[in-house]
Amino acid sequence: MADAALRLKSLFEQLLGTPVPVRIRAWDGSEAGPPDAPALVVRNRRALRRLLWKPGELGMARAWVAGDLDIEGDLYAALDAMSSLVWERGADARSLAQALRDPEVRSAARGLVKLAGLPLPPAPPPEEVRRSRAHLHTKRTDKRAISHHYDVGNDFYEIVLGPSMVYSCAYWESPDGTLEDAQRDKLELICRKLELTPGQRLLDVGCGWGSMAIHAAREHGVSVVGVTLSQEQAAYARKRVAEEGLTDKVEIRVQDYRDVTDGPYDAISSVGMAEHVGSARYLEYTRVLFALLRPGGRLLNHQIARRPWQDESAYDIDEFIDAYVFPDGELAPIGTTVTQLESAGFEVRDVEAIREHYALTLRRWVANLESEWRRAVGLVGAGRARVWRLYMAASALGFERNRIGVNQVLAVKTPEPGRSGMPLRARTWN
């Protein structure tokens, strides 16, 4: 067959009921579709089998990670064009089953099966996490999930994150600024919101590679305990702390936040960690942090948020993210987060939405990865590098299109009823 691309284009349009917005390049070298559009490269028939056996996001993700599908041209433009077909239209098994009631769609599906050849379903790529969701967010399963994501290798994270080694949304003064300056400004913003002063104790929950702990100790004179479940992060952070001469100020522990017992702390920072907690455990998380703070102490909770669904009971975990990126991770609407914090006893004093800042941050991370692609592949393998490129680029679009957001929530453990200890003009950090 010398016209596989034209046949694919026709079949996809019959199945989806809309023109395909990208150019298709098939395994036989043929092309079809808008000549100036990015190209969806279908390298082999196995890519079609993956889509047929698992329609929707997970099937496409498996084909991408395995290298059966690729994109040539502007990655962001291609993902944006296809998002309306895959993510927004709900192109999954359920919606496909409904569509197959249409005779024309059934005919197109049969044509796709014939074109693909349909032996047993291809095995998922080895990068995919396969497990039961029966026992979520125990200490053991959380440690395993964190290890999957963060113990990829510190050398790989150095490529993606750059010298700052901060894996959370930066705070940009200008889109033309440097990633390092924006990450420094984010750390300083958090310290100012917490109103850190010399001699105080700070607990940094999910301390990563130690950047927040080091900044707070060096710039604000506080003593810091940083906790992480990642052995690789802890080893890297301890080395950085020693190089900064801050071993008397900063302690890095491999410890679950639920096992921290040496409170009270004057302040707590939780930056990009709460996404791992899970809805069933979130109130426990807020209560643990509340108990670890002294009266009058402040919490800064920096967390990605999803948009609320009209029917929250219908909300489903993102299949690609769950299988390849953040096993067991869950996002909640900002209103839910605020409610849970206040249910634990906190008074929420400030919420700052910084959605656009994360889009800028992710685009810089993608650029870092692409600039050292060969080295990254050598460190973690082609499949995992492809996971990260897709995940970060798609997430950047998610923030830009307001499908997801990120918020800094400042909360206080009020020392007595009716008294917050906050100044009348609270935004003293501006």
TrEMBL record:
<keyword id="KW-0489">Methyltransferase</keyword>
<dbReference type="GO" id="GO:0032259">
    <property type="term" value="P:methylation"/>
</dbReference>
<feature type="domain" description="Polyketide synthase-like methyltransferase">
    <location>
        <begin position="156"/>
        <end position="415"/>
    </location>
</feature>
<dbReference type="Pfam" id="PF02353">
    <property type="entry name" value="CMAS"/>
</dbReference>
<feature type="region of interest" description="Disordered">
    <location>
        <begin position="120"/>
        <end position="140"/>
    </location>
</feature>
<dbReference type="GO" id="GO:0008168">
    <property type="term" value="F:methyltransferase activity"/>
</dbReference>
<dbReference type="InterPro" id="IPR020803">
    <property type="entry name" value="MeTfrase_dom"/>
</dbReference>
<keyword id="KW-0808">Transferase</keyword>
<dbReference type="InterPro" id="IPR050723">
    <property type="entry name" value="CFA/CMAS"/>
</dbReference>
<dbReference type="InterPro" id="IPR029063">
    <property type="entry name" value="SAM-dependent_MTases_sf"/>
</dbReference>
<dbReference type="InterPro" id="IPR003333">
    <property type="entry name" value="CMAS"/>
</dbReference>
<keyword id="KW-0443">Lipid metabolism</keyword>
<comment type="similarity">
    <text>Belongs to the CFA/CMAS family.</text>
</comment>
<protein>
    <submittedName>
        <fullName>Class I SAM-dependent methyltransferase</fullName>
        <ecNumber>2.1.1.-</ecNumber>
    </submittedName>
</protein>
<keyword id="KW-0949">S-adenosyl-L-methionine</keyword>
